[in-house]
Amino acid sequence: QVILVESGGGLVQAGGSLRLSCAASGRTFSNSAMGWFRQPPGKEREFVAAITWRLGITQYADSVKGRFTISRDKAKNTVYLQMNSLKFEDTAVYYCAAGVLGAYDNWGQGTQVTVSS
């Protein structure tokens, strides 16, 4: 089992920035990719970004391309999501996930991001 702990959420004004972190522990060697998802209020969870652990290949949802950047620190078993030019519609609970690209079987508890307009 992989344990994922997110941090870095909070309240920010539109146009501002936040950086989310996701620290992984446990059976981390079984994961080839990590991703970020979000669940806006009253909506279903949606994909935000993903990164492959070995080569650092990234994927982004169209809604965040050019504003969000996913990265990883192998030494720290940590994945980051740098969020710039935040919009009101980015407000959501953000979840970290680990597994294989497109199929994640380990999830964090989530961190709230609120963007005020």
If you had to describe this structure to a student in words, what would you say it looks like?
With 117 residues, the protein is an all-beta fold. The protein has no helices and eleven strands. The strands form two sheets. Strands 2, 4, 5, 6, 9, 10 and 11 form a seven-stranded mixed beta sheet that branches. A four-stranded antiparallel beta sheet has the order 1-3-8-7, with no helix packed on it. A hairpin with a 2-residue loop joins strand 9 and strand 10. The radius of gyration is 13 Å and the shape is globular. The termini are far apart. The model has no long low-confidence stretch (mean pLDDT 94).
Summary?
Helix content is 0%, strand content 58%. The chain contains no helices and eleven strands.
CA radius of gyration is 13 Å
Helix content: under 10%
Low-confidence stretches: none
Which percent band covers the strand fraction? over 45%
Mean pLDDT across residues? 94
Tell me the major beta sheet. Answer: 7 strands, mixed
Separate helix tally: 0
The total beta strand count reads 11
- Main structural class: mainly beta
The CA-CA distance between the termini, in Å, is 39 Å
Shape: globular
H/E element order: EEEEEEEEEEE
Give the arrangement of secondary structure elements.
Layout: E1 2-7, E2 10-13, E3 18-26, E4 33-39, E5 46-52, E6 58-60, E7 68-73, E8 78-83, E9 92-100, E10 103-107, E11 111-116
Parallel strand pairs: 2-11
Antiparallel strand pairs: 1-3, 3-8, 4-5, 4-9, 5-6, 7-8, 9-10, 9-11
Task: Label this structure with key terms.
117 residues; four-stranded antiparallel beta sheet; mainly beta
